[in-house]
Specification:
With about 230 residues, the protein is α+β, with helices and mostly antiparallel strands. The chain is built from five helices and 16 strands. It has one domain (about 25-225): Sandwich (Jelly Rolls), CATH 2.60.120.620. The chain has helices at about 15-25, 40-45, 75-85, 90-100, 210-215; strands spanning about 5, 10, 30, 55-60, 65-70, 105-115, 120-125, 135-140, 145-150, 150-155, 160-165, 175, 180-185, 190, 195-205, 225-230. Strands 3, 4, 5, 6, 7, 8, 12, 15 and 16 form a nine-stranded mixed sheet that branches. The longest helix is centred in the N-terminal third of the chain and has 14 residues, at about 15-25.
Length: about 230
Amino acid sequence: MLQLSLNGLREGSELEQEEIRREFALRHCVFLRGFLSSTLLGRIKGLIKNQEYFTRIDLDREGKVFAREVTLSGSDPLANLMFLLLNQKDLFDLIENVTELEKPMRYFRSRVYEFHPNPDHYDSWHDDDEKGQTIGLSINLSPDPMDGGEFEIRSASTQEVYKKVSGSCFGDAHLFRIGSEFEHRVLPVRGANPRRSCAGWFCTKPDYRVEIKKMLMTPKPDQGGDVSKS
């Protein structure tokens, strides 16, 4: 079992890695049960309190809004913790191995966000094929069970759905392929609890060591909003 903890990365057995590699090659997405350790989940749960989110709007290449959510500032302790955990060479090497990616990964660009059960929060089909982004990763950071919010990935040309990720619990994750031939989305959230996730992309640039140094030495100002292309 692949698992990330405060003490490092558990890579799993060769057989486990081969099963992940086979599923990823077939479905372009693989579910990782228990990706975060129980100790790490305890630390994360302690950071989830009275957090301040700002509205994030994503635009496609034509300038059309395809997603709306609320996102933590990059200076938030939880966002900082996830950034540091996910930017490590051992993890890059492992993901390159199980996805059989030829280009080396240098950086994980991430955010912590929430989808609430209301029509203002939505995510339409899109590809994320830019900025050197190669493989997507989404981690469930919702201690309370949620209804809806399933992830789907499909062929951009035939619209065949390769995989639908449902039944995700606190600390589970899924990897998915990025490219112009693939599209993905998150379905609406229902019920009372939001869908909280750390999501982002393994990228070929910049170098994570440079970015971590910047983060540690330069405090990030609070953000009041963001409009971005993805």
